[in-house]
Batch of 3 targets.
Target 1
Amino acid sequence: EAQVTQNPRYLITVTGKKLTVTCSQNMNHEYMSWYRQDPGLGLRQIYYSMNVEVTDKGDVPEGYKVSRKEKRNFPLILESPSPNQTSLYFCASSQRTGSADTQYFGPGTRLTVL
Amino acid sequence: AQSVTQLDSQVPVFEEAPVELRCNYSSSVSVYLFWYVQYPNQGLQLLLKYLSGSTLVKGINGFEAEFNKSQTSFHLRKPSVHISDTAEYFCAVSVWNQGGKLIFGQGTELSVKP
C-alpha cells in the first residue's frame, strides 16, 4: 500500500531534550515536506526537500533541522525543544517538485513539550 | 506574498442538507488551488484541485468547487451531506514557481448532525 508513515504518533517530552520524528514514504517520491498544524493557523511549512541531499527552509524553520540522506526518509529533528513547539506535525510527499502535484500526507505526530 | 482565508471556522449542518465552505485567496501571480480534508485523527487527503481549464472541478465523495478568478475565490460545495462528511476542510494554494509548497487557510470544521 502506497503511504507516508510517521513515528511516533504521540510524544510527550520536556524542554531541551533532543528528539527526532521519522517520516518515510514508499512511493519513490522526489519531494518531501514537513508542516506543523496549530489551531486557527492551518498548516505551515517547516522544511522541504526537492531530492536527496537537497533541503531548504519553509516559512517556520526556527528550532528545527532536517536531513535527506535517502530518498524515502525525511526525519525532523528538534535539537532543543521548547513549549512553543507543541503542535501537530505532518510529513508530506509528492512525486515531483512541481506546484501542481498532489501531496500525500502522513497520519501526523502530536508533540507536547513540557 | 500569497494568503488564503477560509471565511468560516465552523459550519454546522444537518444531514442531507447542502453545504458551502468558502475560501478566498490573495496572490499577485497565478496559483493552483486545492481542497484537502482531514478526518478525525488522520492525515490530510486531497478532495480536489484546480490547475486550469473548466472552472468547475469535481472531486471525491460528491464534492465540487468553483474557481472564480475575478472574485479570487474557490468555494467548496456538496448538495447533500452525510454524517461521514464530518471533518476539517482546508483550502490551499501553490505558486507555479515555488515548487511543492502549499499555503493553507485556517481550516473549516464541518459538523454534520442527524
Note: The mean pLDDT of chain A is 94.
Target 2
Amino acid sequence: QVQLQQSGAELAKPGSSVKISCKASGYTFTSYAMHWIKQTTGQALEWTGYIAPGSGGTKYNEKFKGKATLTVDKSSSTAYMQLSSLTPVDTAVYYCARYSQTTEGIVSPFAYWGQGTLVTVSS
Amino acid sequence: DIQMTQSPPSLSASLGDKVTITCQASQNINKYIAWYQQKPGKAPRLLIRYTSTLESGTPSRFSGSGSGRDYSFSISNVESEDIASYYCLQYDNLPYTFGAGTKLELK
C-alpha cells in the first residue's frame, strides 16, 4: 500500500533553514509527482508546489518561490522540501501528498498524504 | 489565482441532521473540485473528487454537486464520526487552492 512517511518536528530559529523529508513506499516513486501543502494553525491549507521525481522538474506556487525548494533522492524514494530564511509566519504543518490515477486515467487529487511535519519558527 | 470562498466557517448539527457546505470559485473550475475531511492531528482525507464522485470507502451519506463556479457538499444523517473540518479544493488550475474550511460540531 502507498505510504508517505515524513520526518519529525523541527524547531528552528528565525533566519535559518530546515529540510523536511517524505519517504515514499508501496509504489514506483518516479511515476507520480510529489506535492507539498502547508497548513497553518489557523487551519488554512496552501499548495506549495510539486516535483516530478523522474525528471526533477518542479512547479511552485508563486507565493513560495524563494521560500521552498523541492528535491528528491530517487535512490531512497525520498522527497525533500527545504524552507529558507524562516520567519514566524512559516510556522505550520507541512504535508507531502500524492495524486492517485487509475489505468483509465481517472485522477484523484491528493488521495495519499504523509502524516505531516510541524515546523516551528521561534527564537 | 482562483479564490475558493467556502461557507459557513462553522456548522452545528444534531445527529441525524443533513448539513450542506458550499464553495464558490472566483471563476469556472469545470467541476474539478474535491472535498476533504480532516480530524484533529490527522492529515486530510479525500472524500469526493470531480464534484460528485465518491472515493472508495466514502459512505454514501456524503454527496457533492455543482457546476461552473458554484459547488456544494452535503452530509445526510450526520453521525458522530463525521465531526471534523471539511475543505474544498479546486484542481482545475495551478496553483491549486483550498477553501478556508468548515468546522462541523455537534449541537
Note: Chain A has a mean pLDDT of 96.
Target 3
Amino acid sequence: GQQVQQSPASLVLQEGENAELQCNFSTSLNSMQWFYQRPGGSLVSLFYNPSGTKHSGRLTSTTVIKERRSSLHISSSQTTDSGTYLCALGRNNRIFFGDGTQLVVKP
Amino acid sequence: GPKVLQIPSHQIIDMGQMVTLNCDPVSNHLYFYWYKQILGQQMEFLVNFYNGKVMEKSKLFKDQFSVERPDGSYFTLKIQPTALEDSAVYFCASSPSTGGEQYFGPGTRLTVL
C-alpha cells in the first residue's frame, strides 16, 4: 500500500495567500525530505527534516514523528511558487515518494 | 550545495537497443541510488548501491537492468535490451551515509521508440 500520502492533491491560491501542504506516512522513518519538482521534471531540494521545524525564507517544514506527519508551509505565496511539491520518506536506505501536491498561484 | 550530475539529459533509443545512463555523484558520497518516474506518475525507487554492490532493488529493477561504478568513475544504469515501458525520467541520487539526506541529479529523460 501507499506509505506516503500527500494532501491536498491540488491547490489553487491567489498570490499572497498562505499554503499548508501535508504529508502523512504509515511507517517509521529515517528521514523526511521535501522537494519542489519543476515543470520540466528536475527536483529542487527544499528541506531535509527528519524531525522538528526548519525555516528557509518563506518556507517552513515541520515533522512530528510520533504523529507520523510532516507539513510544508508557504507564506505569502508568489506565482513562481507554482509547481509540484513532493514529500519523500526515507526508510531502510530507500526513499518513498508521495504523489505530490500540484500548486497553482494566480496573480 | 553539493551537486549530482547526470549525462545525457535526454536520450532517444530504438526498442531492443542498449542504453547507459551516467551519474556523477557528490564526490565524498558512498551510497548511490536510481529512481524512475514515468510521465505524470509517482517517482519510484529502483536500486541502491554501496561498496561496489547492489544492496537492495525493487520489483521495477528488471533483469535487463544493471548498475556499476567502476573505480570511482560514473555510477551507471544500463538497460539491455530496452523496452517501450522503460521510457521515463531516471533520477540518480547519492548520500554520504545510510539513511541520510539524498542529493538528486536533474534526471535523464529516456524515450524508447
Note: The interface with chain B takes residues 30-31, 33, 35, 41-43, 45, 48, 86, 88, 90, 92-100 of chain A (CB under 8 Å).
